[in-house]
Amino acid sequence: MKIVLTGPTGHIGSNVLKAALAHPDITSIIAFSRRELPDSPPDPEKKLRVVVQTDFTIYSDETLKTCAGAEACIWGMGVGNMEKSRSIIVDSTIAAAKAFIDGKLAGEGKKLRFVMLSGMFVEKDQEKKLWFMTEGRRIRGEAELELIRMQKEHPQAFVVHIARPGVVTATNSLFPALLEPLARFINVDDLAAKMVDTAINGHTTQMLEQDVLRDEGKRLRNQALMDGR
Q: Is it the case that residue 56 has pLDDT exceeding 60?
């Protein structure tokens, strides 16, 4: 299976990339990045191709040709500068989804599975009064609404799943696993495992909330260990 991935240099995206490289069902990864990867992850099967892209709202015919045949996209771009948050979260996400739909990335008659990284407290109701993290929650909610609308407009070509994790901890975090549900924490490896699995197999619901991401991610990682991966 061929997939497209964004955000491979970020905290979450880099771990999603590692999980994708390790998964036997994924044979090809096109990773869009603002810059070359600082550290090349282990890639013995030569699955990875990095495309340096400075503008994530424009996709040339050549770029789309590189992505042709991809059956899923994991959209994991993070926001380092809140002044550019709308451009990164809304404009870039929607422009990419539109380009991939119009370019029939997955192939004629096939659906592209689009897995978007969002957040736990995101609010789709743009008129609702919010008391904290107002701008970020609304902006991500706007992106979610647009992707859901696109799925409704293109039901035969596009399906979206939205991951809403809580606080994402590092791989070797000392935070006790038993306390994760109470504190709304999730280990980045659990999140990465579930996002990759969703790209491959989909999920029964459109929204992937914190508990599902954490519990399913742990189960998938345990299964991988049992399988020797």
A: yes
